[in-house]
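Researcher: Here's my situation. A collaborator sent me these components and asked whether they could plausibly form a single complex. I don't have experimental data yet, so a predicted model of the whole assembly would be a useful starting point for our discussion.
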Amino acid sequence: MSQTDSPEEQIDETTTWPDLAISLYDRLTGRNAEITYEFEDMTVDVPSGTGEDAEHAHWRLDGTVRVTTRENE
Amino acid sequence: MKTSDLSAQAPLAIDADLTLTRDDIEYRITATDDTVTLDAPSIGAVVSLFRSLPAGALDQLGPLLQTTDVTVVVSVGDQRVATLEPASAWEASDLDAFEVRSVDVHPQGVAVSVLRELGRHPVALAAVALVTIWLVWRLNRRRGGESAQS
């Protein structure tokens, strides 16, 4: 994103997990859609922080995650 | 903005069957509808996993659970040790102001899990038992002294 972006353009950017969940919900709602993630021995080195000296935890994922929407209660 | 306004923002249903391996420790993640269950082999593994998360990740978990109306259950074997729920009583002007985490720790589940873990290490279990007996003995002795003085 350049510094000349208008505030309206910046709002469209997803910057937090709740924002991501909301955009996911918006895409799925009303379409009876679902998103399925399948992990087959996917490895991720999860950093403890953002610095160069951050430690990394070695994660391995295997399995399935399926996301759909629920009715508002 | 109140909780009731936010809780309906993006309620998601999750169906998951995952195995997470971290530093040779295996965790099981299952989910049905609005509940995600993390099953760890020990209390130490739970603590270790949460401590390995990137800085600030746990602070982001509260708003995420609030927005999606999802509950996370942490269990060790058949014992539920903690429940992370969408916080129910807070008022804030926006999501950035949300800092409260709603974590219910279940002492009974923690105690049973810790005892089971200690049971796998008899020397440690004996040490804990001795310390407990000593503490009870000291407490009773102090109470006896106080009642004699009065």
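Model: Some features of this prediction you could bring to your collaborator: Confidence is low (pLDDT under 50) at residues 1-6, 89-100 of chain B. DSSP finds five helices and six strands in chain B.
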